[in-house]
Structures are given as structure tokens and as C-alpha cells.
Amino acid sequence: MPPHVSLRQISKRFGGAHALRAVDLDIERGSIHGLVGENGAGKSTLGKIITGVIQADAGTLEVDGRRVHYRAPREALDDGLAIIAQELSLVPQLTVLENVLLGQEPNRAGVLDARRLRRRFEERLEGMRFELPLNAPVGTLRLADQQKVEIMRAVARQARLIVMDEPTASLTPDERARLFETVRHLKGDGTTVVFVSHALHDVLDLSDTVTILRDGQVVRTAPAAEETVESLVNAMIGRSFDASFPPKRPPAPDAPVIFEARKVSAGALVRDVSFSVRAGEIVALAGLIGSGRSEVARAVFGADPRTGGSIHLDGEEVRIRSPRDGVRRGLAMLPESRKDQGLMMMSPVSHNVSLACLETLQRFGVVRTREEAKRVRAEIERVDVRGAGMATAVRSLSGGNQQKVLFAKWLLRRPRLLIADEPTRGVDVGAKRAIYELLAGLAADEGLGVIVISSELEEVLGLAHRVIVMREGRAVGELEGDDMTEERILRLAFGTGARRHAA
Q1: Closest CA to 217 of 6, 23, 10, 13
Q2: Which of 12, 227, 259, 390 is most buried, by the most CB atoms less than 10 A from its CB?
Q3: Cα(463)–Cα(460) distance, integer angstroms
Q4: Residue spans of beta strands (DSSP E) within 28-129
């Protein structure tokens, strides 16, 4: 029996850049096949070629031993191939139920049959335990919940091969475990899964086979049981690599408190949250998705209205009612989604970096372009944005370099407090280390206060000097020193542990 999918000498260019170079790959039927590599290695491009989202410039694609040339995703879906892409393709105005069964809606005489729609949903997704409000418009959901809707839609379409591109990036450990359960169930039913992820532990736990890509070429394909995280990383970057965190440098004992939130409330998601940050200190907000971590940060920055409490900078109460107020007071925030909230993807690097500082770069309403270029160039060199000129469109950069552009944008303002919400989401292992070093250096060398929000406990423990644990909109514990362990964070986050050093 032929492989489910065979690719031979597949190549793809975007402008002058090679995304894929003469790739040969077989994906066996009913297997879980992992794809790993740094950002820009060609993983997503390969998944999109398999499922008809884009077309290869050269080479052949065979499905079930039959040569195909998909001109659109619909043609691939007719052959049972679907993709869950990083860029979500949901209809914000439609409900969860309608999005999941979009294009498969039962009707009578042209009228949607709501009962049959619900019944079909339950039949198709029996065993998936994602808890979502089925009648809520998708546009009102958090990014993590929208990711779940994409996963459910692919399963509901009963595809025989599903490409999952970073499907766990927005999920909690519990939700990730449920997804893995679903993926293994799909495999048991004979479905082939191509699993694309930067989470190397997940790839090794889940996959039967792993293919490593580097610079658009296949380095090797091997059984997952024969690989380790270290062997994958070394193959991905072509050299030995220390993936650990930079050494922690605690703030000076007499470091002043530069920021303090006192009993901050915001809507129904944030209730009486208090914590502080000293100069040179990294404080992490940890907790399950939906615990209020990001909402606290948005309320502090002025992106969401506060309904109670106060903000203090250098011991003085300040009024922050909008992001403009926050920026003027020396606050900066890297949002959870750089594409939706942080960057102008179609605009060049220079415009993105200077955007938050235009009032300091203009005279009589005209931007001083030489001064802008000088300062922007210094910042992109400082954060080590690679493979990009000043005029390069941000959308053409890898995820790691896009995130560095976002750092450069805010560092150009010389903030006193930097809030980084999921700072390494969707970036490769090399870029992660660079971002870790950047955050540690900003705190230790420049005296910034840093607030990090992360779903990765390894990241929280590797970076933070203190951890504030959130649950149900409240700060339920503060941990530091030897008390900072994964077990204690999880006990507080799930409400199964004693309250310690409550904030």
C-alpha cells in the first residue's frame, strides 16, 4: 500500500527567498508525523502545499498513490485533507456551532435545521471534551478558545489527513492533554495527523515519526523513539545549542518599587488584584487560561477600563485610562497576539518600530526621516532582528523576528515597566533563547521592571524572580525563591493548595 502522501522534489519560493528546496517526504497512512524546525524552515509551507492552500513551484504531490495538483483547499478537502493553520480562518460573526459545521449545515427547503445541526455536531465530535459556549459568536472568544474551534471543525469534517500547525500554542496543560487524547483517537480510527510544533516535548510524546527541516530542506526523517529534544534542536539549527535560560540576576536588595497595583478590578474577570514590581525585577503572572492574567495586564496598561483599585508609579498614584496614558507614564506592553494587536503586518519594519514614538520624531507635524532611520536601525540591531532591512514588510519575517520587531517598537520609547504577554508564543527555540536573554538583560542591565505572562511553567520558573498565581480573576498566591516550583504553582492555579504569601 502506498504512503498516504508522497512529496518528491517539492520546491517553493516567496520572492527571492527559498521556502522549500527539493523536499522528498513520505507520510504513512494512520500515523502521527511530526514536523519540526526553526521559524522559516518551511514547516508551515509544506503543510499548506499538502492541503492546497498554496501551490509548489516544482515537484510532485501524490495522495493515495495518485498524482494530484490542488488549486484550492476545497479540492484537497474533497480528497479528505484538511489543515488547522496558525492564522485562524473562522467567521467571527457566526457561533461556535455554525463555524464548526460551516459548509455542512443540514437544511429543509433552504432553511437551516437547528436541531439537526446540533445533533450532527454531537455525532461528529463525540469524545471531544472542549468546553465552549456553542451559541456564542466566535469573535467574542479568547484566542485559545478560537483555536479549539478550529480543531473541532477539522475533526467534524471527517478528514482522513489533518495538518495541525501549532495546535497547542494557546492551550493549557489540561487542554493539551485532551487534544492529545483526541489525536490518538483519530489515529486509532485510521486518520493521519501531521503535527507541526515548536513544542518539542509534545512532538516526541505524540508522534510516530519526526521530520526535521532546516533552511527549507529535509535534514532527516526518523522514528520519534530514536530522537531526543537535544538531538532535534541540534539538527534544527545545525550546531550544538544550550537551550537553558540565562542565569538569574536578582534585583539589588535596595531596588525601589517602581510599580504597584492596589486592589485592581476590571469587569468580571479581574477582582482586587494587588502586586508590585521593583526596578530590575522580573515578575511572572501564572495561572490557567481564563484566570485573568492577560486581563490584569490590559487593565494596568489602560487597554481595558478599571472598575476599581489604583496604580502607583514610584509611590505616586497615577491615572491610566487608556494605552496612551500608560505609554506616557513609561509603560509598554507586548500583547498576546502580535498579528492582531501589536504589529501592522503589511507595513515595513521601520514604520512598525517608530509607530509608538512618532511624536518624538517629528517637527511641525513632519517626521524627521533621518532621525527615524537612525534610531530604528539602532533598536533592530539591539534586539537582533535578522534577515530584514528597514523596508522589509513585517509579514515576510519569521515569528521570532516579528516578535523582536515588537520589542524594538517599545524599547525605542525607553519604558520603565515592560509587560510581555506570551513573549515566545509561536517562535522557534533559537529565537526563544534570544528573547529570554533580552528580557533578563533589560531587567538586570537597564533596571527595567518586567511583567511576564506565560502559559509555559518552564518559562515562568526560568525567568521570574517572583510569581503571582492567578485563579478566577484573583491573585491567590505569591511565590519566590525555593517556593517557586511547578507543583506549587499548579496547586494554587487549580485551587488544591494552601494559599501562600497571598497578594
Answers
A1: 23
A2: 259
A3: 6
A4: 32-36, 58-63, 66-68, 81-84, 107-108, 111-112
What pLDDT, in 10s, does the model give residues 382-423?
877 765 667 777 777 777 788 888 888 888 888 899 999 988
| Coil, strand or helix at 171 | coil
Pick from 15, 16, 17, 14: nearest CA to 48: 14
Burial 261-278 (b: 16+ CB within 10 A, else e): beebbbeebbbebbbbbb
Q: Indicate whether this model's pTM tops 0.70.
A: no
297 and 419 in contact (C-beta within 8 Å)? Answer: yes
Looking at the DSSP bridge assignments, the partners of residue 82 are 162
Q: Which amino acid is at 54?
A: I
158 vs 153: CA distance, rounded Å: 9
Phi, psi of 185 (to 5 degrees): -65, -40
Q: CB within 8 A of 433, min separation 6: which ones?
A: 241, 242, 243
Whole-angstrom Cα distance, residue 75 to residue 346?
Answer: 29
- Residues 58-68 have pLDDT tens digits of 999 999 999 99
- Report the distance separating Cα 287 and Cα 489, nearest Å: 8
Confidence of residue 215 (pLDDT cuts 50, 70, 90): confident
3-class secondary-structure state, position 32? strand
